[in-house]
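Figure 6 in text form: structure in, sequence out.
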């Protein structure tokens, strides 16, 4: 192993090369169009939802503030990942600077953790709304949302900060080709000629601490919600209660499912094409972002009405 030398490090890894779908080059051609459409759909739908919540006074409530936070995170994730992937597909711009690579890694990990934590807070919101409806206005307040947002930001920004730091301190002795479309944690770390056991252990701990604990608390919340709903005896009360949190549960289930599929395909990569986990990794940063505002817009009457008012305003101003 070459001795560690900071000047050598800065020369040798001034940039990385994102070698995207080298085993399936045709994927770039057929994937670029749907990926770009999903990107513009995600950006447009989330921007529309944010503007609707901002302009419509009836939506100035904690639940919609949390949904706005989710939209902001989706926009941040898309902008961090998808433009670079499309630049690789369209213009073969595979190079990414050393610092840009680790910045992308940090934002991806931080935003995914923040999304998971936001889903957890939203699950708690639905739990209080269904199980303790009379106490809901006193528990879920604007101050609660502000404190929850600070907690979401602080927890994930701090714990995920050490993932790129641990990777950046490694000694990269000449190899700079990343077999991925993005600067994924292990795809970058395995280029090092140092021992990466600490990186893997810390990443595993953070994943279980953040995503694992969030998913456990989310599903516990829905178990209590389901139990409370089954006790409702009023006609149509159970259906109404489930409808209020149905869209939220759909999004959580999709977020969890696509994440688990990615994990299992990564584990079983010897049995499938190595490009499959790379494809799922890219899609995981855009499909949930495109679906989140659409599912809420379709299933939430207040948001549909708000978007309708916004479109009417735009129509009047254009005339």
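Output sequence:
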């Amino acid at each position: 192993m070459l001795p560690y030398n900071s000047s050598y490090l800065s020369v040798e890894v001034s940039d990385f090369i994102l070698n995207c779908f080298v085993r399936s080059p045709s994927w770039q051609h057929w994937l670029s169009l749907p990926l770009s459409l999903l990107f513009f759909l995600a950006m447009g739908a989330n921007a529309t939802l944010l503007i609707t919540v901002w302009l419509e006074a009836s939506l100035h409530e904690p639940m919609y503030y949390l949904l706005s936070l989710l939209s902001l995170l989706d926009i941040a994730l898309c902008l961090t990942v998808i433009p670079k992937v499309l630049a690789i597909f369209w213009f073969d711009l595979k190079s990414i600077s050393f610092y840009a690579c680790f910045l992308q890694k940090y934002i991806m990990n931080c935003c995914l953790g923040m999304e998971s934590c936001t889903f957890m807070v939203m699950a708690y919101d639905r739990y209080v709304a269904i199980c303790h409806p009379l106490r809901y206005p006193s528990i879920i307040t604007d101050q609660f949302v502000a404190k929850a947002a600070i907690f979401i930001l602080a927890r994930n920004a701090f714990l995920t900060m050490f993932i790129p730091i641990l990777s950046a301190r490694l000694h990269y002795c000449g190899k700079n080709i990343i077999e991925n479309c993005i600067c994924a944690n292990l795809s970058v770390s395995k280029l090092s000629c140092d021992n990466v056991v600490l990186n893997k252990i810390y990443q595993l701990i953070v994943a279980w601490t953040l995503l694992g604990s969030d998913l456990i608390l989310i599903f516990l919340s829905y178990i209590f919600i389901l139990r409370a709903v089954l006790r409702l005896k009023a006609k149509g009360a159970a259906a109404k209660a489930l409808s209020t949190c149905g869209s939220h549960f759909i999004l959580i289930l999709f977020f969890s499912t696509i994440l688990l599929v990615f994990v299992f395909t990564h584990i079983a990569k010897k049995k499938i094409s190595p490009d499959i986990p790379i494809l799922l990794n890219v899609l995981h940063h855009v499909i949930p972002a495109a679906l989140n505002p659409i599912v809420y817009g379709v299933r939430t009457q207040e948001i549909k009405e708000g978007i309708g008012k916004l479109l009417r305003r735009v129509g009047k101003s254009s005339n």
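Caption detail: Residues 6-318 form a domain with the Rhopdopsin 7-helix transmembrane proteins fold (CATH 1.20.1070.10).
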